[in-house]
Design a protein that fits this description.
By secondary structure, this protein is an alpha+beta fold. 37% of the residues lie in helices and 13% in strands. It is globular, with a radius of gyration of 18 Å.
């Protein structure tokens, strides 16, 4: 496969290894389709926000893994599988003729330091971002929160965009939490999942509970759920809820 050198790059693109070609193409289709879920659920405006998915390579340590992500500043109406870009876990462009999302370094850092994560999503959804602007965790006062997040949705540190500082904040915060979502201070929510679809679901749920708890606080102080009940709800939802495989 022939690749082109992006504007401003001194070296040709490495290209996707042949053994990952099918997996990368499938991930491009999935990630492109999932981007449509962000405006559908009113989690983004204009070109803000992004979805990425890890493509696992052959190395046990994940050193040859790749990630598929949207290019920077591209309208959601123009997102197609062919528009997606591919980077390695250093954030270096491997395939594509557009600049990757400005959050690529953050996504790459998460994949490098959380090997269980297969998908990352960033939005600026209104209510979750409002909590981030206050630097306040969303308290676990709903059974839906206990199910999905296993407790509060935590707040991560303030970090500037452009390098892996945001990624470091995400990892440091979520390593101490069962939550798949973190509210990066003065910025907005980032969510993780076993794959991109799970991370998008977490972003949708994060905004829903942020909105509901905000409304509740207009009426009075919401009541926290006891930790033992949070643990019970989380275990049931994560291990029993839904269609389980036949044994």
């Amino acid at each position: 496969m022939t690749t082109s050198t992006p504007t401003g790059s001194a070296a040709p693109l490495a290209g996707v290894p042949a053994e990952l070609r099918d997996a990368v193409d499938t991930a491009k289709e999935r990630v492109a389709a999932l981007h449509a879920e962000l405006p559908r659920w009113e989690l983004v405006v204009w070109t803000a926000g992004n979805v990425s998915e890890r493509v696992r390579g052959a190395a046990a340590d994940g050193s040859d893994d790749l990630l598929v992500i949207k290019p920077s500043g591209v309208s959601y109406d123009d997102i197609t599988p062919e528009a997606m870009v591919v980077c390695d876990l250093d954030g270096t462009l491997v395939e594509g003729d557009r600049s990757p999302s400005s959050d690529t370094a953050a996504h790459a850092y998460v994949y490098t330091h959380m090997p269980e994560v297969g998908g990352v999503v960033h939005t600026h959804s209104t209510y979750a971002t409002a909590w981030a602007a206050r630097g306040e965790a969303v308290p676990c006062v709903l059974t839906m929160m206990a199910d999905e997040f296993g407790g509060d949705i935590p707040v991560g540190p303030f970090a500037l965009i452009g390098d892996d500082s945001i990624g470091r904040g995400i990892v440091e915060t979520l390593r101490e939490s069962r939550s798949p979502a973190v509210l990066m201070r003065n910025h907005g929510p980032f969510t993780i999942g076993k794959d991109a679809r799970a991370a998008v679901k977490a972003a949708v749920m994060c905004e829903e509970v942020a909105r509901t708890v905000h409304v509740s606080r207009q009426l009075g102080e919401p009541t926290r759920i006891a930790q033992s009940d949070v643990d019970s709800l989380y275990a049931r939802y994560q291990n029993v809820y839904g269609q389980q495989p036949a044994r």
